[in-house]
């Protein structure tokens, strides 16, 4: 394990590419966590350095300090990735994605608001891992981002996702009950692709029917 590094204020400001005065301002605005105190000396670590670099990157992308402060609070109070993935560990088919806050902003631009971030965390899409954010599924991240770039507000995308989650849970329950009536629990992983194929085909046909409607 790498040794934890600590910095005095002047060194931290230099590494972050900002002035000591700016660092003090960020600390007063609670944009960074308090330093560790040793007598009259304040010690900062790599967590503070990562947060300062994130602030700089978000400012360059047009975010305001007030918005960054709200995002920082959301990150600090977000669910840990361990809670997000649960006892069973990582998803068996979906690929989690680690993101920095500025990378998340690149995906959703000005839609990456504290309100939308909190909604995504409540939905179980996002968790935190130190200074990084973890999205539970690369496919869901890509689809959400694509819909936002098509002009659909992220809040509406997340609301729709919540409704889809309810229907998906019901479909998973239906398929599991069907298999367990005629096979064993050990057969579920092997037969799982069949359930996905049925849902994909039925959704495709349903979209055809919907688009044919006057």
Automatic annotation (TrEMBL):
Domain HTH merR-type positions: 6-74
SMART domains linked: HTH_MERR
UniProt signal peptide: none
Keyword hit for ATP-binding: no
Database matches in Pfam families: MerR_1
InterPro entries tied to this protein: DNA-bd_dom_put_sf (IPR009061), MerR-type_HTH_dom (IPR000551), MerR_fam (IPR047057)
Keyword line: DNA-binding
Gene Ontology MF terms: DNA binding; DNA-binding transcription factor activity
Gene3D superfamilies attached to this UniProt entry: 1.10.1660.10
Protein's UniProt name: DNA-binding transcriptional MerR regulator
Species whose genome carries this gene: Streptomyces violarus
